[in-house]
Design brief:
- By secondary structure, this protein is α/β, with parallel strands linked by helices.
- The chain has 2 domains: about 50 residues; about 240 residues, Ribonuclease Z/Hydroxyacylglutathione hydrolase-like (Metallo-beta-lactamase, Chain A).
- Helix content is about 30%, strand content about 25%.
- The strands form 3 sheets. An 8-stranded mixed sheet has the order 8-7-6-5-4-3-16-17.
- Strand 4 and strand 5 form a beta hairpin.
């Protein structure tokens, strides 16, 4: 918040004193002149009091904003550069959430950052859907860490990586929660809502539209993670609300309604987890038109977004925004 106050006074002794365009001369109108001086003293005191009040109010706003940020804590989101795949780690003071695990072998990269952070627990592992570039590293994480909760869509996968994921669950006696309706939870005063797909069938060989969509609200910031949502799924979440940061759906591939979706959610910044060959030029144009500051793992390497509850700061391993 910024407050602009402009106060201007012009006093001319030449030897006349001017008030509101009327000229008074001390020798001709001595009583009026004395009253004028008294009025000026009153004005000066009033201005001083006003400025003291304004400065105190500004200090109060600043203090309140700092207190809000301190209460909100910090949320760190790492988008790993794992090619055309999603692997995302969200870390707050006492909690860790993983959204997708990339392909086979990519779980090691997520695990390394957790270990460097002295973390042995994953509070929620969210598998948006069971394509190999989302579930591939799940088995490694499940076997290596204390995974408290696993959230998935309610269907069965067909790839080998899915079978390995099931085997790891069995070894650790973990029963996943297969979502048929939306679920919400709070970690470190950060609110998470995971939106379940609204259909049980989207078409033959079309698993992408089963993607779980996760909205994370950290005080004034909203982060939206969309998995591989395609046209039908985007239509389902078109009214999800605006966001500060968007994880662009489907690795930045062309989607017929991506412009409509961007207009609906109005992201201030966007991250694409993709390879350069998958990142559609039309999607890049749509992102530029939306005025979202955009980063892509294929150009920027690992991308880190840190929310303090009021702002989001993004750093990259290399390069600048698109």
């Amino acid at each position: 918040m910024s407050i602009h106050i402009c106060i201007s006074f012009s006093i001319f002794f030449n030897p006349n004193l001017s008030f509101c365009g009327i000229i008074y001369n001390e020798r001709v109108y001595p009583d009026t002149f004395r009253k004028g001086l008294l009025l000026m003293k009153i004005i000066k005191r009033t201005v001083a009091l006003l400025m003291t009040t304004v400065l105190g109010t500004l200090a109060l706003f600043s203090c309140n904003e700092k207190q809000e940020q301190a209460a909100a804590g910090e949320l760190k989101v790492t988008f790993f550069d794992v090619g055309k795949a999603d692997a995302i780690l969200l870390q707050s003071e006492n909690a860790n959430v993983v959204i997708d695990c990339g392909e086979k072998g990519d779980g090691k990269k997520i695990g390394k950052l957790l270990e460097e952070s002295d973390c042995d627990t994953i509070d929620y592992l969210i598998i948006t859907h069971f394509d190999k570039d989302h579930v591939g590293g799940a088995a490694k994480l499940i076997r290596s860490f204390n995974v408290k909760n696993v959230l998935t869509p309610n269907y069965d996968g067909t790839v080998d990586e899915y079978d390995k994921y099931l085997g790891a669950l069995a070894e650790k006696s973990i029963t996943p929660i297969k979502l048929t309706e939306d679920i919400s939870f709070t970690l470190d005063a950060i609110d998470y809502t995971v939106y379940a797909p609204k259909k049980s069938f989207y078409g033959d060989n079309d698993e992408n539209d089963f993607s779980l969509v996760t909205k994370v609200v950290h005080n004034k910031n909203t982060l939206l993670f969309t998995g591989d949502a395609m046209e039908q799924r985007l239509d389902e979440i078109m009214d999800i609300g605006t966001c500060t940061l968007l994880k662009v759906p489907y690795h930045g591939r062309k989607l017929d309604n991506i412009s409509d979706f961007l207009n609906a959610v109005k992201p201030k910044c966007a991250v694409v987890c993709t390879s350069s060959s998958e990142f559609s030029g039309k999607v890049q144009d749509a992102l530029k038109k939306s005025n979202a500051t955009t980063y892509a793992t294929c150009f920027n390497g690992d991308i880190t977004a840190v929310s303090n509850g009021s702002n989001i700061t993004i750093t990259t391993e290399k390069g600048n925004s698109l």
